């Protein structure tokens, strides 16, 4: 929390039933670098930290930035420490993908203009491998979900609208079963497209919002869909990432196991 943060008209303040995990500030030890070269860096993102800084925060000084660290900030510090350099001596990180603040998992940043362009092209062409593990209430049958996502479905939240409507963007999520529990289902979701909050919206509109969901957890009539999972946070994890390296042109791939908090949640649900 930043005590100096000033709210603006239209911003939404969300009060959580459970506090989000504390972030270690701009501590390079808080970031696990899975791959580093002159063109790309792949890191493990923890839940509770934003991938990049909000545009309204770009003019913050370093003192304020330390209070509310972002993944690109701490990644730069981790790279500097690994290479024995100062942060200001490094090329800036180039954003090619984002994960929601409460989502954990693998993230890639570009470290050169050429890498940014090529990775951006691959993301736009939907050729990047992105698989997520998530936990939802009830029994969910494997399926492919396709819809047109719009910024406002009528209640101020993102959601699906009529096919081809307005500024809607086509979104496709392939969902398969990982494990069926007594009252919950563990799913593997593969993105064919990568729209904002795509998995969360698709699963919610299917009647099975991600456990720990605090935004897309309502039915069309506005009633809240019960969540009895006691999830420690949003139960969504980007477990696999793969793409063609922009320089070597070789296919590269990484996997990241479930973090301890979600693994412990699954063990608890299995016992129940």
Write up what this structure looks like.
This protein has 272 residues and is α+β, with helices and mostly antiparallel strands. It has one domain (28-271): Pseudouridine synthase, CATH 3.30.2350. 19% of the residues lie in helices and 27% in strands. Strands 1, 2, 3, 4, 5, 6, 7, 8, 9, 10 and 11 form an eleven-stranded mixed sheet that branches. A hairpin with a 3-residue loop joins β8 (169-180) and β9. The radius of gyration is 19 Å and the shape is globular. Residues 19-25 have low confidence and may be disordered.
Q: How does the SSE layout of this entry go?
A:
Layout: E1 32-36, E2 40-45, H1 62-67, H2 71-83, E3 94-95, E4 104-110, H3 113-124, E5 129-137, E6 143-150, E7 159-161, E8 169-180, E9 184-191, H4 198-205, E10 236-244, E11 251-255, H5 260-271
Question: For the report, how would you describe the main beta sheet?
Answer: 11 strands, mixed
Q: Which spans of ≥5 residues are poorly predicted at pLDDT below 50?
A: 19-25
The overall number of domains is: 1
CATH superfamily, by name, is Pseudouridine synthase
Counted by DSSP, the helix tally is 5
Reported by name, the CATH topology is Pseudouridine synthase
Helicity range: 10-25%
Mean pLDDT: 87
- Give the strand content: 25-35%
Question: What global shape is seen?
Answer: globular
| Termini Cα gap | 35 Å
Number of strands: 11
Structural class: alpha+beta
Helix-strand string: EEHHEEHEEEEEHEEH
Which architecture per CATH?
2-Layer Sandwich
CATH class: Alpha Beta
Radius of gyration: 19 Å
């Amino acid at each position: 929390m930043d005590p100096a943060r000033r709210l603006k008209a239209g911003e939404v303040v969300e009060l959580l039933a459970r506090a989000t995990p504390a972030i270690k500030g701009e501590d390079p030890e808080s970031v696990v670098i899975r791959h580093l070269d002159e063109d790309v860096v792949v890191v493990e993102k923890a839940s509770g930290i934003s991938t990049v800084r909000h545009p309204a925060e770009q003019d913050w000084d370093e003192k304020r930035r330390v209070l509310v660290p972002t993944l690109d900030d701490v990644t730069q510090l981790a790279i500097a420490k690994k290479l024995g350099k100062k942060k200001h001596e490094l090329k800036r990180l180039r954003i090619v993908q984002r994960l929601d603040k409460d989502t954990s998992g693998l993230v890639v940043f570009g470290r050169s203009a050429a890498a940014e362009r090529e990775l951006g092209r691959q993301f736009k062409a939907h050729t990047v491998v992105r698989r997520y593990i998530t936990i939802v209430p009830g029994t969910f049958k494997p399926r492919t979900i396709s819809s047109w996502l719009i910024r406002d479905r009528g209640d101020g939240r993102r959601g699906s609208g009529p096919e081809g409507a307005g500024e809607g963007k086509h979104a496709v999520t392939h969902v398969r079963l990982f494990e069926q529990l007594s009252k919950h289902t563990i799913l593997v979701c593969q993105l064919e497209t990568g729209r904002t909050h795509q998995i969360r919206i698709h699963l919610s509109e299917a009647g099975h919002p991600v456990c720990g969901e605090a935004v897309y957890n309502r039915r069309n009539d506005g009633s809240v869909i019960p969540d009895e999972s006691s999830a420690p946070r949003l139960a969504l994890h980007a477990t696999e990432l793969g793409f063609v390296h922009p320089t070597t042109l070789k296919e590269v791939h990484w996997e990241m196991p479930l973090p301890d908090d979600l693994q412990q949640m699954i063990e608890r649900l299995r016992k129940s």
